[in-house]
Amino acid sequence: MMAKILKPNHYLEIGTGYGDTFNLVCKYAEFLTGIDRVKRSKVNSRFNVMLYKGDSDSFFKTNKSRYDMIFIDGDHRFDQVKRDVVNALSVLNYDGVIFVHDTFPKGEIYKIDDKCSDSWKVPAWIRSNPFVDVMDVKKHPGLTIIKHKEARK
Ligand SMILES: C[S@@+](CC[C@H](N)C(=O)[O-])C[C@H]1O[C@@H](n2cnc3c(N)ncnc32)[C@H](O)[C@@H]1O
Questions:
Q1: What distance in angstroms lies between residue 74's CA and the mean position of ligand 1's atoms?
Q2: Coil, helix or strand for 60?
Q3: Spatial contact of 65 and 33, defined as CB atoms under 8 Å apart
Q4: 28-40 pLDDT tens trace
Q5: In angstroms, rounded to a whole number, what is the distance separating the alpha carbons of residues 23 and 103?
Q6: pLDDT tens-digit profile of 79-134?
Q7: Against a cut of 0.85, is the pTM above it?
């Protein structure tokens, strides 16, 4: 698990769901922020956790924090994921890493809105940004990893 290696100071997850990932990351991050439209009691809410109930667009309008690791796993429609990536990049520390989930679904049946939707468009789109380095895990449902280019340090 990447959080175990990265040990982020501040972790942000867009779309915490039932906390399957968020609760695991709790062991390795100093502070955590979770965003979801729906509040679910299974999501850990310890002293070092801030849970925001609402959509990611409204979260970023008031957010003042910066993050070391950001997991984007909310609304998988391409237009929304694009906004989440742009917003995430604007609050990502220089050494930070963004993970975008569901970018390599294994078939058409997964390219529907309540599954991976059209997140599969993210890898090609993000590569048109010259200021980032990108890596993909092309195993269903897929993951795209984004960081600021080293040269910007
Ligand atoms: C696939 S689930 C998340 C799973 C979770 N990340 C995990 O690893 O277990 C997607 C979640 O995103 C939430 N969601 C959908 N659109 C959102 C948005 N625009 N902003 C915030 N949360 C959103 C949904 O309510 C749902 O709980």
A1: 3
A2: helix
A3: yes
A4: 999 999 999 999 9
A5: 23
A6: 999 999 999 999 999 999 999 999 999 988 989 888 899 999 999 999 999 999 99
A7: yes
Residue position matching structure tokens 């968020």:
22
> Which homologous superfamily does the CATH classification assign to the domain defined by 7-152?
Vaccinia Virus protein VP39 (3.40.50.150)
One-letter identity of residue 71: F
Tokens of 153: 């340090």
Could you tell me the sign of the dihedral formed by the alpha carbons of 144, 145, 149, 150, in that order? negative
Question: What ranges do the domains of the chain cover?
Answer: 7-152
Residues having CB closer than 6 A to ligand 1 are 13-18, 20-21, 35-38, 55-56, 73-75, 80
Token pair of 50, please? Answer: 């801030």
| Cα–ligand 1 centroid distance for 34 (angstroms) | 10
Q: What single-letter amino acid sits at 147?
A: K
